[in-house]
Write a structure and sequence with these properties.
The complex is a heterodimer of chains A (about 190) and B (about 160). By secondary structure, chain A is mostly helical. Chain A has two domains: about 5-100, Rna Polymerase Sigma Factor, Chain: A (Orthogonal Bundle), CATH 1.10.1740; about 110-189, Winged helix-like DNA-binding domain superfamily/Winged helix DNA-binding domain (Arc Repressor Mutant, subunit A), CATH 1.10.10. Chain A is built from eight helices and one strand, in the order H-H-H-H-E-H-H-H-H. In chain A, helix 2 runs antiparallel to helix 3, helix 2 (about 20-45) packs across helix 4 and helix 5 packs across helix 8 (about 165-185). By secondary structure, chain B is mainly alpha-helical. Chain B has a domain at about 5-55. Chain B has five helices and one strand. In chain B, helix 2 crosses helix 3 (about 40-55). Classes of the chains: A mainly alpha (about 190), B mainly alpha (about 160).
């Protein structure tokens, strides 16, 4: 049992949700909604679709909550649902031949340091534009680990757990992704 | 680099160093490899530039008020799913009941001594055939997707 004032643990919330407490599931949703949105956003590259998919995944998890083992990490279980929805969405989008505009604003640059040299700042902006466009064209598995590493700041072990692959596979996918991005940066330069 | 094992080692050392997940010994090992291989040094520089670029980018975030409505939106979906299920089930029963009573009349109209014009008979046949084809096609696609979908796994642990 958590001490008074301490937020309830995931497994406690899962148990409560399984016994009919919808608010407990709501607390889990609130706890992970930003992380879920970021994961979906990194995969599908559209704010509205990322919100829609992450909410749909939570709704499915809610309906399937009785099958959840409270001893296992909630987010890893949820993420399996989310990634399946995202990859299905990407596959359907490819079938419909819908592509995001090149370099769309799903990735935005952080504010640059005020003291940055203007030429260097312009080069950096160009790099960011190319990187955003190149990330959109990465194969799904590579894009997934890159997003989890770069934009969710997860460690290799955590990524391996979520994606359900060995750490070596995480590293090789990251390497392949970065090689492609490096090639995109060097085109016409 | 002398072989695939060295290449793999260098790759892993570079990734771990870029992502801040390497130990002192691994960093020293990487330096040693970089010192003796200019091509690897060049690759390291290129990968470093990628890392520098991606580390200055963030994912676009929705407006803050989106998060206030987020859980309610999820909850509404679960409720609506149930509502759609009930509506769908009811509709199927009603349509089936309607067809059960209407189909004999249609058949009589099509093949009996009816005054239905040939065009209308043809249209009824076309609609019924099309509906059957659509149902078969959708069911086949769903089954095929489920069988071949590499990501349709892992929902249950």
């Amino acid at each position: 049992m958590p001490s008074p004032g301490e937020p309830p643990s995931d497994d406690e919330l899962v148990r409560r949700a399984q016994s009919g407490d919808a608010d407990a599931f709501g607390q889990l949703v609130t706890r992970y909604m930003r992380q879920a949105y970021s994961a979906a956003m990194g995969l599908v590259g559209s704010r509205e679709d990322a919100l829609d998919l992450s909410q749909d995944a939570f709704a499915r998890a809610f309906r399937a909550r009785r099958r959840l083992d409270p001893e296992r990490p909630f987010y890893a279980w949820y993420y399996a649902i989310l990634r399946r929805l995202c990859f299905n969405f990407l596959r359907d989008r490819r079938r419909r031949r819908v592509r995001l505009e090149e370099g769309t604003a799903w990735l935005v640059a952080q504010t640059a340091a005020h003291f940055e040299d203007p030429a260097r700042a312009a080069e950096r902006r160009e790099d960011q534009r190319r990187l955003a466009a190149a990330i959109e064209t990465l194969p799904g598995h590579e894009r997934e680990v890159l997003v989890l590493k770069e934009f969710e700041q997860l460690r290799y072990r955590e990524i391996a757990e979520l994606v359900d692959v060995p750490i070596g596979t995480v590293m090789s996918r990251l390497y392949a992704a970065r090689q492609r991005l490096a090639a995109a940066l060097e085109v016409d330069r | 680099m002398t072989g695939p094992d060295d290449a793999r080692l260098a790759r892993d050392l570079m990734m771990a160093a870029l992502d801040g997940e390497s130990s002192d010994a691994e960093r020293r090992e990487l330096e040693r490899l970089l010192d003796r291989d200019p091509a690897l040094r060049d690759e390291w520089r290129r990968l470093g530039r990628v890392k520098e670029g991606t580390s200055t980018m963030v994912l676009e975030q929705p407006p803050e008020e989106t998060w206030d409505r987020y859980w309610m939106s999820v909850y509404n979906r679960t409720e609506r799913k149930l509502a759609w299920l009930l509506v769908g089930l009811g509709a199927i029963i009603l349509v089936a009941y309607g067809l059960w009573h209407a189909v004999p009349a249609w058949i009589e109209g099509l093949f009996g001594a009816s005054d239905l014009p040939v065009v209308v008979r043809g249209a009824i046949v076309a609609v019924l055939t099309g509906a059957v084809l659509l149902v078969v096609s959708v069911v086949r696609e769903q089954l095929s997707t489920k069988r071949t979908d590499a990501y349709d796994k892992g929902v249950s642990r």
